[in-house]
Each structure stands twice: as C-alpha cells, then as structure tokens.
Amino acid sequence: MAKEEKTNVMRVLDGKKIEYTSHSYKPDATMSGEEIAGILGENPDKVFKTLVTQGKSGQYFVFVVPVKEELNLKKAAAAASEKSVSMIKQKELLPLTGYVHGGCSPIGMKKQFKTFVHETAEGFDRIFVSAGKVGYQIELSPQDLIAVSGAVLSDII
User: Fold this and answer.
1) Domain 8-154 CATH assignment equals 3.90.960.10
2) Nearest of 32, 61, 67 to residue 48 by alpha carbon
3) pTM exceeds cut of 0.85
4) For residues 152 and 116, what is the distance between their CA atoms, to the nearest angstrom?
5) Are 117 and 64 spatial neighbours (Cβ–Cβ below 8 Å)?
6) Cβ distance 135 to 25 under 8 Å?
7) Domain residue ranges in the chain
C-alpha cells in the first residue's frame, strides 16, 4: 500500500492533534477553485482560497475566502485596520510564505501573519483549504482552522 504524502500543513495539524481529512487530485495549472470544488464533489461555498496582501503600513495579511468569491479590498483593509491593502505579486508568495501560487494555505506559513476567514465559514461543519501543495486539499472544521491559524472571522467579500 502506498504511503500518503504528507504536506507541511498536515504535519502541523498532526502535531496539534487536529482532525482533518486530506484530499488529492491531479492538478492542472489552469484549474479554478470552482473546478477544484467540482472535482471534490463539494459545494464551492465550502471550498476556500488563501490570499496574501500587504497593507499600506507594510504589514502582511492573509485572507481566506470562498473560491467563487472575490476579496473586497476595502473591507479587507477595514478588517486589518489599514488604510488600504493590495494583493502581493505572485513572485513574492514563495519567499514570503513558503507556498506557491495555487498551493498557499493559511496553516504553516514561514511566518504567521494576521489571518481573516470570511464569516460564511462558520455556517459549515467542515470546510476545505489548500493543504500547502498544488493538488492537495484538507477538510477540517472552521473552528479548528481558526484556532490553528489564529484567524478572525470577518465580512471580507
């Protein structure tokens, strides 16, 4: 039997004894979050993407929103108590977080940044986020995601 590949996210969750289910799929570089939700057979409202921004102050912030939604930068700035926030450049993602585009997770970044999860997450028993590698997702309770990432629920879409 083949041994399941563990990502850093899975190791963090294992270390904290947090229950999760891992899912893997054959990735395609052009795949959208909604297509990934379809592959998982899940409601896209339960599948979340991780976005990294930089505030006017220079601080970095992480926002976790449903895959079919867009981050509202004004609401995100207000949540982060910033004048404004903007998305970081894709080339900055790996050195800053340790993750590549399409595989960024709010769990296990090189440095823990202030994290915000869209408030709809708490309406589900389980949600999906990237497991830290393209082609891998984890399913866990929103409360566990919030606890392990130090996140705050917020209206950010």
Assistant:
1) yes
2) 67
3) yes
4) 5
5) yes
6) yes
7) 8-154
| CA nearest neighbour of 47 among 104, 100, 126 | 126
Q: List C-alpha distances in Å: 152 to 15, 61, 63, 113, 133.
A: 22, 12, 10, 12, 24
Residues 22, 41: Cα–Cα separation, whole Å: 14
Residue written as token pair 């340790």: 98
More confident residue, 31 or 16: 16
Long-range contacts of 26-29 (CB under 8 A, 24+ apart): 26/135, 27/102, 27/134, 27/135, 29/102
pLDDT digits (tens, 9 = 90+) for 79-101: 999 999 999 999 999 999 999 99
Specify the pLDDT at position 92.
97
30 band by pLDDT with thresholds 50, 70 and 90: confident
Is the separation of the CB atoms in 133 and 104 below 8 Å? no
Secondary-structure breakdown of the chain: helix, strand, coil percentages, each rounded to the nearest 5: 30, 25, 45
Cα angle 69, 113, 26; round to 5:
50
Report whether 10 contacts 108 (CB < 8 A).
no
Rg (CA), the chain: 15
